[in-house]
Each structure stands twice: as C-alpha cells, then as structure tokens.
Predict the 3D structure of the following.
Amino acid sequence: MIKLHKVSKSFSQFQAIRSISLTINKGEIYGMIGASGAGKSTLLRLMNLLETPDEGEVEVNGQDLTKLNGKQLRQARQSIGMIFQQFNLVANKSVYDNVAVPLELAKVPKQERRNRVVECLQFVGLEALSDKYPAELSGGQKQRVAIARALANRPQVLLCDEPTSSLDPNTTAEILGVLENINKSLGVTIVIVSHEMDVIKSICTRVTVMADGEIYDTVSIEPEGIKQLSNQPNWFTEQLTKDGEKNHA
Ligand SMILES: Nc1ncnc2c1ncn2[C@@H]1O[C@H](COP(=O)(O)OP(=O)(O)OP(=O)(O)O)[C@@H](O)[C@H]1O
C-alpha cells in the first residue's frame, strides 16, 4: 500500500530523514513514535508528498508519487486523506462547507457532493452540527470534522499527524474509536504519528520507532484496546487522592 525506498529529506544543511525504507500493508493501523525532532512528521508528510524527497521513491497504491506531474499528483492525493494536531479547518466556513471543500476541488457533481458530505458527517456523528462554525466546536468535534473532510473523497489511506495531542484523555479515546472504526468498517489503512505511547499501544498493530531521522526499530504489537476513562468529577478526585484517601483542601 505504502512503500518508501531510500527516502531522504534535508532542510538547508540539516538532514531530517536519512535514507529510510519501509512498507505499510493494506488495512494496517501503523504507528510511528520517537522523541521530538526524530523526523516522524516529516516522514508522514513525505507519504503524500507534502514534503518532496531529495532522494528515493514514495509508492502509494502502486504509483510512485515522485514521478507524477501536478495534475496526476492531485488525483493521487484524493486517495490519501490527512488529519493534523491543530485540525486545520477553514474558520469562515461552516462544518458542512469544510467537508465539501475536497469534493469541490475534485469537481464532484453537486448532488453527489451533498450525499457524500451528509454521509461523512453521519459517520463521525456530527450531522446535527452541519451549520456550526469551527469556533463554536470543542476540540474533539473539530477533529471529527477534519476526519469527515479527510474521508470525503473515500481515501484508501488516512495519515494522522498527532491526531489526539491537543485533546483531553476522554476525547482522545473517542477519536481513537473513530479511527479504529474507519479502519475496521471502511478498510482504510491508517498511519498515526504520535509521541503518546498510550495512543500508539491502543490501536496500532505495527510500530516504527524513529531516532535522528532513521528507523531505530519496527515492532509488531497486539493492540491493547482503547482505555475508556470516566469523565465524572468523582473519578478526577479519586485519581488525585491516594487509595481513595480524601485530603480535601
Ligand atoms: N520545514 C522545515 N524547515 C526546517 N526544518 C524543519 C522543517 N520541518 C522539520 N524540520 C526539522 O526536521 C527535524 C524533524 O522534524 P519533525 O517535525 O519531522 O520531527 P518529529 O519527530 O515529528 O518531532 P515533533 O514530535 O516535535 O513534531 C526537526 O529538527 C525539525 O526542526
């Protein structure tokens, strides 16, 4: 599904990615973890050519993206969705219109566009918020809109750059549930970059550990499942007090 072959990327004199080769199989939930600056986000952005490699090949769905012209690359990117830590929604567009953007760019006819926007908003459970604007939404709702937008062109791959790093633990669990559902019910291959070990361990089946622009190791794991945390106020108090011992201020 995704094959990188000896891919390198430098920013000025600094080599951020050093001749990396890796293969991500269709249907995997694949994690990438490592210290800040290890090169995780850059490697992810190389997978849809948001960063252009200096050397090497980037193959997605059997196409070497580095060999495509502008129009072909735009076409190929329709099957590669992406979400970000800061959601990247368009502030002056409604939820509905944000999800419609990629469909307009892909010149999907109006009626089909309507159907797809509604279908994607239903999938993430936000159809009731179609007319709201990003500023009126919680972080978790914004990320759901971003996910709906990423799904609009029915991608085969979803690239996730720190998708839960701006969210609280409960909302993180909700978003991980949405990603897992996308993988299981739509068969979308998912790549997640995160510095949060719990996030990676919860749903990934294979994980690459990165260090200094290189792959340190790649391991197969049994996903632990998504930890559901309570959001009841007494749960927070219990976590703050040892063995239920109350020490109220
Ligand atoms: N556009 C850029 N221009 C210059 N340097 C960059 C650019 N993008 C990334 N870098 C540098 O490349 C290195 C890898 O960055 P990258 O964001 O990929 O790391 P990361 O592992 O995702 O870290 P973090 O978790 O902190 O985002 C860092 O040293 C970063 O400063």
Summary: The pocket of adenosine-5'-triphosphate is lined by residues 11, 16, 34, 36-42, 195 (CB under 6 Å). The longest strand covers residues 14-24. Helices lie at 40-46, 70-77, 95-105, 110-123, 139-151, 169-186, 197-203, 233-240. Residues 26-49+62-244 form a domain with the Rossmann fold fold (CATH 3.40.50.300).
